[in-house]
Amino acid sequence: MSSLRLALVQKASSLESAENRAALAAVAGTLEPDTGLVVLPEAFMRDFGAPGSDLAAVAEPLDGPFVAALTAFAAEQRTTVVAGMFERSEDPERPFNTLAVVDRDGLRASYRKIHLYDSFGYKESDRLVAGPVEPVLVDVGGFSVGLMTCYDLRFPELARELVDRGAELLVVPSAWVAGPGKVHHWRTLATARAIENTVYVAAVGQPGPRYTGHSLVVGPAGELVAELGDGDHVLAASVGRDALDDARATNPSLANRRF
């Protein structure tokens, strides 16, 4: 396939998992025809809640109600979905921060967040377990999609490893905490990951007031394909193989590396 239509769903999740599952019905009505990949934010299954609150109590297995709801949504819309959830781990007090990739047949892949947000006064590792240091890719509509979550965006080595393994599109579901300079960091890091790897970046976040919103798609030459402001919205965009090939022919920085 020469192009892939995306829908980035910038929507706040609540503290009630059932409400977030039910919200998928409203998302369905916003999708354009032939949308091949729907990307929901980090923690869409259930918001993080107040700092220090118990996430183990709300975590689910990968065959639980949230993934079942995603599967039903994907089957109805004939699409693939990426969404953030809290997944039970072997630690009874700390689950994983996981991305589930689902199509009409069920779970395709899962990525457990590698870099936990122990920064800017937060300590995500107090409540969550880091995933294994193993990049995860999945084929969607003929495009190789690499998975990253929120704080992962600040670590160029993960993006580069995904691209070395064939990623053409980096998908970054997030709950990017608001604060001074944070929108600037978000835009800059998403753009940098695209430029340095000559790859598409589709980064979707929850909106304010707690988070920054500004979901965006950046092209492989660093061009801004589309961006939202704040609030609940769905961003539609397409990624294309021709633009990817052109960027890599014009700027063969991956081939010119010496380290």
Automatic annotation (TrEMBL):
<dbReference type="GO" id="GO:0016787">
    <property type="term" value="F:hydrolase activity"/>
</dbReference>
<dbReference type="InterPro" id="IPR003010">
    <property type="entry name" value="C-N_Hydrolase"/>
</dbReference>
<dbReference type="InterPro" id="IPR001110">
    <property type="entry name" value="UPF0012_CS"/>
</dbReference>
<feature type="domain" description="CN hydrolase">
    <location>
        <begin position="4"/>
        <end position="241"/>
    </location>
</feature>
<protein>
    <submittedName>
        <fullName>Carbon-nitrogen hydrolase family protein</fullName>
    </submittedName>
</protein>
<comment type="similarity">
    <text>Belongs to the carbon-nitrogen hydrolase superfamily. NIT1/NIT2 family.</text>
</comment>
<keyword id="KW-0378">Hydrolase</keyword>
<dbReference type="Pfam" id="PF00795">
    <property type="entry name" value="CN_hydrolase"/>
</dbReference>
